[in-house]
Write a structure and sequence with these properties.
The chain contains one helix and 34 strands. The chain is an all-beta fold and 365 residues long. A five-stranded antiparallel sheet has the order 3-9-6-7-5, with helices on one face.
């Protein structure tokens, strides 16, 4: 195995062999097969599982192609966040989750970093504290950096401030149009976010290209959580039992089946039950976990476990989505059927914000 960008000198040979790992572009060569993949890491794993594969490519439509060789690289679709290619000798990208502030009998400003790639534990390097004790903020990105917006500060005051995290420091940045507590933010198009809910039936759009918030569509009610089903449709859930499908191109709302249980605090995650055609959405609340199957417009109860509280799910570009609460870290397997316990967080907390980060953005050790 070789780390990304490692140059291996072949002793006794004038040539150098460059092990390409997660480089910008798409590799074209003798094609083996293509498949949907959850991440570049997932695509790499598929290559390593196939004895014919020597190169993998992953694009911004989550498509993975495996080839025997790499005759040329198309750099027209480039950038680590868009298209990357590499060789089977690569090691997986290290991936982290930044846990920000929250509540545990008092407002918290503590921040910790979780290694969710292999070690699955809290990192010894402690990130800088959040500028103000806060809970129930929302996580976005701005210029590919974590941006935490809204939330509640003492004494029970909703805020519209946004803080950006860069080089282990926080600075006040852009400002929401409306103060929001326990709202949700979803990237509906590349570098465009829909921010909604938070004790309000309003929404707003954030454009990363210019850092500007603009008014968005009016909501059918106060929505609490959401997840992109595909490039067109966003599933949104309320604190009650009502749920909706939103076309992110036309902003047309369509009611879908009601959940069994209402939960004031909810968290949403998505998983693929075997194949991309069997995608399902999980909603985690204070009393149970419910799973939505779009193909049949039905909900089912996966677990009647009241210990999750106001959990939050993180689905980085991996095979798993994560569930954090109190000091517990858990993940679902790729089929969404098994809850796997991991290490513990450093302190107990809930109602926190969380942001996905790569090794290139932060140091764990």
């Amino acid at each position: 195995m070789h780390d990304a960008n490692m140059l291996t000198m072949l002793t006794g040979n004038e040539n150098c062999t460059f092990i390409a790992c997660f480089q910008p572009g798409i590799c074209y060569g003798s094609f083996i097969y293509g498949k949907h993949a959850l991440s570049p890491n997932d695509c790499l794993e598929s290559c390593q599982d196939d004895p014919q594969c020597n190169f993998f490519s992953f694009n911004d439509e989550d498509y993975c192609s495996l080839t025997r060789d790499c005759a040329f690289v198309d750099s027209s679709c480039s950038g680590v966040d868009k298209c990357v290619y590499g060789q089977r000798e690569c090691e997986p990208h290290q991936e982290y989750v930044l846990i920000i502030a929250g509540y545990d009998s008092d407002y918290l400003d503590d921040v910790e970093l979780i290694d969710v790639t292999t070690n699955q534990k809290s990192c010894p390097n402690k990130p800088s504290a959040f500028p103000v004790p806060m809970h129930s903020g929302m996580s976005l990105t701005y210029d590919k950096k974590p941006l935490i917006c809204g939330g509640e500060i003492y004494p029970s005051t909703p805020i519209s401030d946004c803080y950006i995290y860069d080089n282990d420091s926080w600075s006040q940045n852009v400002t929401l149009l409306t103060p929001r507590v326990s709202g949700t933010a979803v990237e509906v198009h590349p570098e465009q976010w829909l921010i909604l809910g938070g004790d309000s039936d309003t929404s707003e759009l954030f454009n990363e290209a210019n850092g500007i918030f603009t008014p968005g569509p009016t909501l059918p009610n106060d929505l609490k959580g959401g997840v992109m089903l595909n490039e067109t449709f966003l599933i949104l859930v309320s604190g009650g039992t009502e749920n909706y499908l939103l076309d992110v191109n036309t902003f047309v709302w369509t009611p879908i089946a009601d959940r069994y249980t209402s939960n004031v605090d909810v968290a949403t995650g998505i998983f693929f039950n075997g194949t991309i055609d069997e995608i399902q959405v999980a909603v985690l609340g204070t009393s149970d976990i419910e799973v939505y199957t779009p193909s049949t417009d039905t909900w089912s109860v996966l677990s009647n476990n009241g210990s999750f509280g106001s959990a939050i799910t993180i689905q980085p570009s991996m095979k798993y989505f994560w569930l954090f609460l109190g000091t517990e870290m858990n993940r679902f397997d790729e089929n969404g059927l098994s809850l796997i316990e991991a290490d513990s967080m450093s302190i107990s907390r809930n109602r926190f914000a969380a942001s996905y980060m790569l090794k290139s953005q932060i140091s764990c050790y």
